[in-house]
Amino acid sequence: MLDKNGIAKRIAQELEDGMYVNLGIGIPTLVANFIPKGMTITLQSENGILGTGPYPKDSDVDADLINAGKETVTVLPGASFFDSFESFGMIRAGKVDLTVLGAMEVSETGDIANWKIPGKMVKGMGGAMDLVASAKNIIVAMQHTNPKGESKLLPKCTLPLTGVKCVKRIVTELAVLEITPEGFKLLERAPGVSVDEIKAKTAGKLIVEGDVLEMKI
Question: Catalytic pick from 14, 16, 46, 197?
C-alpha cells in the first residue's frame, strides 16, 4: 500500500498542463512536490498566494511564506499575493480547475465530510465549502480507513457534510476510485494490494469490472 507521499504522487498524475489547482490541508499539499517536469501548474492557496511552489528545504525556509495550513512554502517566479477577499473571489468565480481535499468520509454518491467531528473543537470549515461548491473537479486524498480500521468510504456520510455529490475521484493508500451513479468504481489498486482487501475495507457499494490494473507510481 502507499504512504502519504505515494498518494500525493499518484494524484499528481491527474494534473494537466495549464491547470489552476488548490491543494487542501494535509496529504493534498504534498502534491506540490510531485508536479511532472515540464508541466505548468499554478497552485492557489486560499490564504492569498497564486504561484505556490514545493515545500522548502531547511535552508530556504521563510517564515513569512505560509500556505492555508500554516506550513512554510516556496513561491515560483511570477507569484502574487492578495487578501482573502480576492482569493475567495477567484474560487467562487470558478477559476480553480481542480481542488484536492482530504476527507473524513466520502459517500458512494460523492458527498464529502471533511471539516467537523461532533463534540470535538474545530477552528472552522476553512475554504472547503467554497471549493467544493465552485471547483470544476474535486479529487479526495485520504486514508481508506479511520484509526479504528473502519471504512471511510460509506453508503452515506455520518458526519456533517461539506458538499453534496461533488467528489469525482478518490485516491487512498489502497486504490483509485471514481464516483459513478452505481457507486465507487475501482480503477486501480496500489502495488501489493488485492481487490479482496479493497472490498473488505469499502463499506459503500464497490464496482469491480474485469482485471483491475496496478497503479504505476
Answer: 46
> For residue range 70-127, what is the model confidence (pLDDT) as tens digits?
899 999 999 999 998 999 999 999 999 999 999 999 999 999 999 888 778 777 777 8
Q: Is 54 exposed, middle or buried (0-12, 13-18, 19+ CB in 10 A)?
A: middle
For residue 145, give the amino acid letter. Answer: T
- How far, in Å, CA of 194 to CA of 137, rounded? 28
Residue 125 has, within 13 A of its CA and on its CB side, a CA count of 14
pLDDT over 90 percentage in the chain: 87
CB distance 189 to 213 below 8 Å: yes
Model pTM? 0.94
> Measured in Å, how far apart are the chain's first and last C-alpha atoms?
11
- For the question of residue 188 being annotated catalytic, the response is no
Read out DSSP for 28-50? GGGGGGGPPTT---EEEETTTEE
